[in-house]
Amino acid sequence: MPHPIPDRAAFSNLVLEHQRSIFLHALRLCRGDEQLARDVTQKTFLSAWKGRSDFRGESALRTWLFRITHNLALNELRRAHRRREQLNLDEEPVELGSVPATAPEQLEEARQRSALRDAVYSLSERQRDVALLRLYEDMSFPEIGEVLGITANNAKVNFHHASKSLQRQLARGGAA
């Protein structure tokens, strides 16, 4: 089988095709930290370029990139957590950005997005990862399994539990 990333031009096309979805996924995994998501995105493509000879074609390139992104984001979050513990700093909340105070519908929408984000981040790590890949990346359960290193059935079960948990949390908070 010919190598899927034979040269820099092919790799540039790969980056152009996937950089937005990789960045958005990294942003979600990094809880809205744009700089960290940019770093993870850049490291994802550097890692893919360096490891291109390791890609065996057993999964789609997209799935392979998401797995790299997932692993790098988790490593970066662990490093950031250790640094915070060392510095004894409290975790800062993710900012929603500016919402005009004159638009009640926009404020309500921002409140609902915030409630959903908080509910997603309160899930167990596995359920959160499955939910993010399924809901935002529209990945199939077999693809999710490949990215996370679990079975497709395990991905389905985790998604089911995540969905039920999100429904309960959002209903309790009035954001269902």
Layout of helices and strands, plus pairs?
Blueprint: H1 8-29, H2 34-50, H3 61-87, H4 104-122, H5 125-137, H6 141-148, H7 152-173
Helix pairs in contact: 1-2, 1-3, 1-5, 2-3, 3-6, 4-7, 5-7, 6-7
Beta-strand percentage range: under 5%
| Largest sheet geometry | none
Shape: globular
> How many distinct folded domains?
2
Overall structural class, as computed from helix and strand content, comes to mainly alpha
Order of SSEs, N→C?
HHHHHHH
Specify the CATH homologous superfamily of the largest domain.
RNA polymerase sigma factor, region 2, helix turn helix motif
Shape-level CATH architecture of the largest domain: Orthogonal Bundle
Fold-level CATH name of the largest domain: Rna Polymerase Sigma Factor, Chain: A
Highest CATH level, the class of the largest domain: Mainly Alpha
Please give a structural write-up:
By secondary structure, the chain is an all-alpha fold. The protein has 7 helices and no strands. It has 2 domains: 92 residues, RNA polymerase sigma factor, region 2, helix turn helix motif (Rna Polymerase Sigma Factor, Chain: A), CATH 1.10.1740.10; 77 residues, Orthogonal Bundle (Arc Repressor Mutant, subunit A), CATH 1.10.10. Helix 3 packs across helix 6 and helix 4 crosses helix 7. It is globular and about 50 Å long. The termini are far apart.
Gist of the model:
The protein folds into 2 domains: 1-92, Rna Polymerase Sigma Factor, Chain: A, CATH 1.10.1740; 100-176, Arc Repressor Mutant, subunit A (Orthogonal Bundle), CATH 1.10.10. It has 7 helices and no strands.
